[in-house]
Amino acid sequence: EMRNLSCAQCHSEYYFGEENYLIFPWDEGMTAEEMADYYDQREFADWIHPLSRTPMIKAQHPDYEVFSTGIHAERGVTCADCHMPFKSDGAMKFTDHQVQSPLANVSASCQTCHRESESDLLKNVYDRQDMVYNLRDKLADVLVKTHLEAEFAWNQGATEEQMREALHQIRHAQWRWDYAAATHGGAFHAPLELVRTLGDGLDMAHEARRKVTAVITELGYTDE
User: Which residues are CB-neighbours of 159 under 8 A, at least 6 positions away?
Assistant: First the structure.
C-alpha cells in the first residue's frame, strides 16, 4: 500500500482549512459525489462563478481517488508497478526511478502482465480515453450554456431563492466535470467510474437548465 500512498500524498484532491491546514476530503468516501457531500456539509466553496454566481468547488487532481476505483487497483496493482516498472542491472532488480507514462515503456509496464501486442494495448488505452473525453466535452458544452442562461436569469431580476436549486445542480454538475478533467490518466485508470461520474454530471446540468428556464418563465420573460 505504501507504493500507492507515497504517490497519493500529492496526487489527490485536497483543500486548505483554517490556518492553511491541508485536508483530504475523504470523510464521506472517495467518489466524486461523496467528496461533494463532504464539501456541501461544510458549505465550502473555492470561488464564485462570475456569471451564474454559483459557489464552485475546484478539483485539484484526484488521481489516487480515481485510480482506487479502477480495475488495476482492484487487482492489487500499484502506481509504481506501472509508472516505475522493475528493471535489472546484473543481479540487481530495482524500480526504475525515471517516473513516466507507462506508454513510454509498454514492454516493462504492461506486458509483464498482459500478453497482447503493444499496438493492441495502446489502442485499448486510446479507445478508453476517447470515450471519456467525448462525454466530458458534452458535459462542458451544457455547462457553458447553463452558466450563460443563469446569468440571464439574474439580469432579469431572479432572486436567490428562485435560483437556489438551479445553482446547487450547477455546482454539482461542474464538480463532476472538473473531477474528470483534473485527474491525470483517469480515463485509463477508471474509465467506467469516470463515465458514470460524467453521466451523472450531464443529468444534473440538464436539470439545472430546466430549473433556470422555469425561473426565467416565472419572471415573465418569453422569447418570441
Answer: none
First to last CA, the chain: 61
Provide the grid cell at 151.
446569468
Q: How far is CA 29 from CA 35, 53, 104, in A?
A: 6, 28, 33
Cα-Cα-Cα-Cα torsion 55, 60, 64, 68, nearest 10 degrees, comes to 30
- Geometric angle at alpha carbon 64, from 61 and 65, rounded to 5°: 85
Sequence-separated (6 or more) residues with CB below 8 Å from residue 33: 172, 176, 197, 200
The model scores a pTM over 0.90: yes
Nearest partner of 175 among 150, 148, 208, 151, judged by Cα: 208
50 to 7, 29, 178: CA distances (angstroms): 35, 30, 17
- Residue where the block lists cell 526504475: 96
> Strands 15-16 and 92-95, how do they pair?
unpaired
Task: Write the pLDDT tens digit of every residue in 126-180.
Answer: 999 999 999 999 999 999 999 999 999 999 999 999 999 999 999 999 999 999 9
**One-letter amino acid for residue 18 of the chain:** E
CA distance 37 to 35: 5
